[in-house]
Design goal:
elongated; single chain; 16 strands; four-stranded mixed beta sheet; about 30% helix; four-stranded antiparallel beta sheet; alpha+beta; about 260 residues
């Protein structure tokens, strides 16, 4: 079971408790191959001891169990949501929220071929993402036991990868280069791009955003307005041109579209 969570979600504490009952795989990064085989990264754990000081302690000294002799396989992908007021609950998570939560925690995601596609295929292979809302590790144990003892969930299909066609426009609005782009089942568009400082970031576009992004290949503002009206109709409030201009300004601010004069 792969748990993903930002700092403060209690990953090390939860892993320490689980690994006294199950095997300790890692409390940090883990590798997953294309076929779902998990590559363990057993390492000393950073644990608070005494008066708030952290020490690096080996897994066995903490009572954590050794790995089984059989290869490890990915069974579930769970996003952690630790909340002091939460009642422990394990629930399905929509793919858009899963991308936003998991992608920033993936080391070297942008170095993969088809990064978002690779990530989502792993999530689909285990039946889709889950979210664990919990307060303390002990509260989550019954839910995790049930999930680990259940049969693998059926694979699902939730997205379509877009062909990345380089834009060579010399005038008008044009897409900036991206590493990967996918259309989700709900119509939203997820894009992974690398910024000027070398960092990668995921952007999820909805509303008229996906239409404008796809159309921006040397397009004029009139081209973008026409494409938005064809795909979505005229807005109930305001006018289409103002709505398109506002969305285009947001896309330019995010670095997803540029304007050539």
């Amino acid at each position: 079971m792969l748990f993903s969570g930002r700092s403060g979600m209690g990953k090390t504490t939860l892993m320490s408790r689980l690994a006294r009952e199950f095997a300790y795989v890692t409390d940090e990064s883990v590798g997953v191959t294309a076929d779902g085989t998990v590559l363990p990264y057993r390492k000393p754990l950073s644990v608070i001891v005494g008066a708030g000081a952290k020490q690096q302690l080996p897994p066995r000294s903490l009572g954590l169990r050794d790995l089984p002799s059989t290869p490890l396989r990915l069974h579930a992908i769970v996003v952690l949501d630790r909340d002091d007021d939460a009642v422990a609950e394990l629930e399905p998570l929509n793919m858009t929220d899963a991308i936003a939560a998991i992608a920033p925690q993936c080391s070297y995601l942008s170095e993969l071929d088809a990064p978002l596609t690779t990530l989502l295929r792993h999530i689909e292979s285990v039946g889709g993402p889950l979210r664990l809302r919990y307060r303390e590790a002990e509260d989550a144990l019954p839910l995790i036991r049930d999930l680990l003892s259940s049969p693998p969930r059926d694979a699902i299909s939730t997205f379509e990868r877009l062909a990345i066609v380089p834009v060579s426009a010399t005038a008008g609005y044009a897409r900036t280069p991206v590493l990967d782009a996918i259309t989700l089942a709900d119509g939203r568009l997820a894009v992974l791009r690398r910024s000027g400082d070398g960092e990668s970031s995921v952007h999820v576009l909805d509303g008229i955003g996906p239409t404008l992004w796809r159309t921006a290949s040397g397009a004029t503002l009139n081209d973008l307005v026409a494409a938005a009206v064809r795909a979505h109709g005229n807005p109930a409030d305001g006018d289409a041109r103002s709505a398109v201009r506002a969305t285009v300004d947001e896309l330019r601010t995010e670095g997803l579209i540029e304007y050539w004069t």
